[in-house]
Amino acid sequence: MIKTDPQAQLPVGWKFDWETIPSSDHQAQLFLSEYRKEPWEKPRALFVLHGMGEHSGRYADFAPPLAECVDAIFVPDHRGHGRSEGLRGDIARFDLLIEDAALAFQRLQEKLKKRFGDESEIHLLGHSLGGMLALRFLERFPELPIASATISSPLLDVAMPIPAVKRAASSLLKHVWGSLQIPTGLPPEGLSRIPEEVELYTSDRLNHDRMTPRFFDGMMAAMKGMRASPLARDVAIQFLIPLADRVVSADAAVAYYHGLSQSDKRLKTYPEGFHESMNDLHREEFFRDVADWIRIHGKGRKE
Asked: How far apart, in Å, do the first and last CA atoms of the chain sit?
């Protein structure tokens, strides 16, 4: 099964739909994937922010394990990713990614309100780069209603130290050739302990391994700022951290979690897990944790 064919991954009774909307600065068209039950009966949806270099088509397989707790899963492709427009792995200003996400979220709000009125309920999940973006999204847009948040393997620091020469070169290049595409060098075998999942990732033509100096510089500044100033918004939040992550720093994520002052928070760790919990050997436990958190924080809290 290839993950560029979303419909093939959906359970019986689910439908794949998509649309495009202008980006926050009107410089690109953003591709939005929607996986939903037909008929769409439950006013509860999951809004997902994906990781670096991947795309929304890889999240169609969230539907089977989460079909009992949500009726729709909404995933925008970040600018420069997947089927959204933009140079691969590039962004002129890092927070444009968050502003784009807010527009996509508001589009989902519109759809839910049209169907269900004030009963609408949206839960947030961010993975890797999307985990860091989700935290910034919660801080930047406190007016947007989030029933709960799940943060998976957040990019708050990298697993391996970045050489000082690479940091210096990026700082220089962002001024003279900020849009130069450079391979990230991240090993795909660090994503999962399942060889077939690694092969699916590497053979997926919509994935990429490029990052420009201005994206890199903005990302590094964002990570540093996040670590220095933990999320203040009081939202129900859980962190799902694979401790054998070779891509992002599990230690940084756990430390960030312990610095949070939210009244309702939970940390779950997977001791042997690699970066993509949803595609690793602990996948079933990961999805149970996601589903339980959504159920606990659903309206009425009874299913």
From this structure: 32
Q: Please give the Cα distance from 299 to 136 (Å, whole number).
A: 25
Nearest to 74 by CA among 40, 124, 25: 124
Q: How far apart are CA 57 and CA 264, in angstroms?
A: 31
Burial 215-239 (b: 16+ CB within 10 A, else e): bbbbbbebbeebeeebbeeebbbbb
Nearest residue to 14 (alpha-carbon basis) of 50, 58, 66, 54: 66
Q: Which residue reads 């939903």 in tokens?
A: 36
Q: What is the Cα–Cα distance from 131 to 150, expressed in whole angstroms?
A: 8
Of the candidates 96, 168, 176, 169, the residue with the CA atom closest to the CA atom of residue 137: 96
- d(C-alpha 249, C-alpha 229), whole Å: 17
State whether residue 114 is helix, strand or coil.
helix
- Per DSSP, the three-state class of 265 is strand
- pLDDT at site 291: 98
* ω into 39 cis (within 30 of 0): yes
- What letter represents residue 1's amino acid? M
Q: Are 173 and 180 in contact (CB under 8 A)?
A: yes
Classify 173 as helix, strand or coil.
helix
Q: Strand 149-152 vs strand 182-183: parallel, antiparallel, or unpaired?
A: unpaired
Instruction: For 90-119, write each residue's pLDDT tens digit.
Output: 999 999 999 999 999 999 999 999 999 988
Q: Is the peptide bond before 213 cis (omega within 30 degrees of 0)?
A: no
Integer Cα distance of 231 and 247 in angstroms: 22
Give the pair of three-digit tokens for residue 232.
């203040």
Distance CA 94, CA 215 (A): 7
